[in-house]
Amino acid sequence: MTGTGASFERKLSEIFAAEAAEHVQRMQACLLELEGGAAGGDAARSVQLLFRATHSLKGATRAVGRRDVETMCHAMETLLVALQRGRLEWSRALGDVLYDAAGAIQRHVARAPDAAAAGELAALLPRLEQFGAAGRTSGAESGVRAAPPAAAAAPLARPEPAQPAGAERAAPETVRIAAEHLERLLHDVEELVAVKLGIDRRTQSAAGARTSLATLQAAAGAAPGAQAAALADHGRQLRAVAAAAERDRRELEVAVAALLANVKKALLLPAASLMPFLVATVRELARSQARDVQLRMEGDHVQLDRRLLQELREPLVHLLRNAIAHGIEPADVRARHGKPPKGQLTVTLAPRSGGRVVVTVADDGGGIETARLAQAARDAGMAVPAQPQRGDLLELVFGSGVSTAEQLTHVAGRGEGLAIVRDTVERLGGTVAVDSAAGRGTAFTMDLPLSLATLRAVEVRASGQSYLVPTVQVDRCVRFRPGELGPVGTRLTAPIGDRRVPVVSLSALLGSTGAPVVGAGTISCLVLRSGERFTAVAVDQVCSEQEVLSKPVGRGLTKSPIVSGAALAASGLTLPILNAAELVRLATADGQPGAAPMVLAAAERRAPRTILLAEDSITSRTLLKNVLELAGYEVELAADGVQALARLRAGRFDAVVSDIEMPNLDGIGLTRAIRADAALAGLPVILVTSLASREDRERGAEAGASAYIAKSSFDQGNLLQAIAELT
């Protein structure tokens, strides 16, 4: 086959995979309606739509030569015709085999035919043919009958008003675009937000210069006429430039906002697109646990960012798994408690103001036994209050290693599922809470942003550094007078409403020795909330609440649980985003009365050491700089090896921390140049890089690197320990 022919075949296969996925999604939606108890005309309509989707898929398979899928679709059509003609009755067993067939097709249309795919599809054919044989021999007329053609074709939505004769409704024009192209476009548009922020700062600078010039003009009133005239002329020019800059800024702000909103809208999907995946998950889990479970979704029309829907899959699976394994009882137990034999699982989505959505997963099971939960938490090494409130006990379900399962199975027993839920939700800038009633069920509620591109955050300063805290995790900002603070046990506390909450220094939590700045006799605090726990975190300054642009960060550089990501702030700087829930956990952990060091404490105090940091990525450079400065080092920056070498020869440094992959001169070349320079040869060089192979490490050692740290396994403690040992 020629290169052109092979390229066409690949493109055709990609188109087929996308089309087949749409057909399978329609098939699963129709099967869900039938399983949900659709009857009469609704059932007939579901069967007809299911038949159409199956028939369309069969036709598409011929174009790409997928005879295995075509044979499967043909067998499914046979059953659906029998259903339509009343020769076959709908049953759960029939629904199972049709759903299994649709799932098998879904798994295999996206890849080239192979023995495994053919084997799975072939194994399902006898089950389909068994039902087909029953349909051919049965004379029963009690099955699902097809409605008359007009009724069967009637849409579910309310009919449109009658149109004038000859008028036609034009269907909205659509075009198929790969999601990755839209996401790339969204990324480019998001970068325009950074440009807009820069123009905002320039406009503010122009306004400030205009004010300064006006002050000079007022002070120069007695200047000679020529000078005064020149100054006035400069003032007019500056005012004109400032006014034009402000007009341009407003126009750009409107244009960028509209463009960003439209591109985001193109990436929105209805929550209903998750339903086939969730139904398949519940079916499999319910089968494995011998439970009869019905899943419902409310608010499935809510439109969500496609990336958020993808991120939600894992926490939703863990919540559904938890409900089936721990919540919904077996049918005989439910009968003894007067419940229907089929357990109910409900996923509800509700948009709320501020660009957020609330997702609730609720079951009607037995609820959480708090006594067993408390014991499981103790067994996992967690501290349980002596006289806890019910809300405090329920929060224990999110602890790592906490499980009330009596035995370990493939579904439950590890105690990590709900911890993963909380970690994921908080990483997305949201919160999760739990409520439970004995005998009536449990509900988990996730409060999430509708979009992952931007978020609202509070900028604070501590020990000379700036940080961001997601607004949704901040309960309030307050100032305390020193007299309002008082000890409770070994902790310093402050009054918040009708309770006293721990007060800790953000500098202490981050491992710095600096104390919070006390201004005008008060201490500025952010009150952070995680579930039912509150902590007042003392900072030097609460700067502002603002919308910030999320920036991608390498996974290695966010392994610290305190840092959940990075964002571009209004100042134009990329700042770390702090995980408020982790700060609260550290602040309230036993044995941590206000300080949880994130760096290795030095055995003795000494003068600050100066580190040269060479890194071409501005995001990685910013985060590494913060890590080093929090540890007490002075840091100078270089964007490549050439800049680094020039700075080394012009100044005095105690160590070099360098990336390898940089323009102009990479980290290996920089290390060799340092070792070849008599004045620099003894300087410690630590390579921090994404290159982690044995060959890369050997190249670093041969060049003369003092230490080699891979970003894939990056831990700031290892970096700081290496610097401490080498300097």
Automatic annotation (TrEMBL):
Annotated HPt domain residues: 5-116
EC number: 2.7.13.3
Organism field: Ramlibacter lithotrophicus
Domain of life: Bacteria
Residue ranges annotated for the CheW-like domain, each copy included: 454-589
Keyword Manganese: no
SUPFAM superfamilies: ATPase domain of HSP90 chaperone/DNA topoisomerase II/histidine kinase, CheW-like, CheY-like, Histidine-containing phosphotransfer domain, HPT domain
Keyword Kinase: yes
Modified residues (4-aspartylphosphate): 659
InterPro entries (UniProt xref): Bact_Chemotaxis_CheA, CheW-like_dom_sf, CheW-lke_dom, CheY-like_superfamily, HATPase_C_sf, HATPase_dom, His_kinase_dom, HPT_dom_sf
Protein name as catalogued: Chemotaxis protein CheA
UniProt-annotated stretches for the region Disordered: 139-172
UniProt enzyme class: transferase
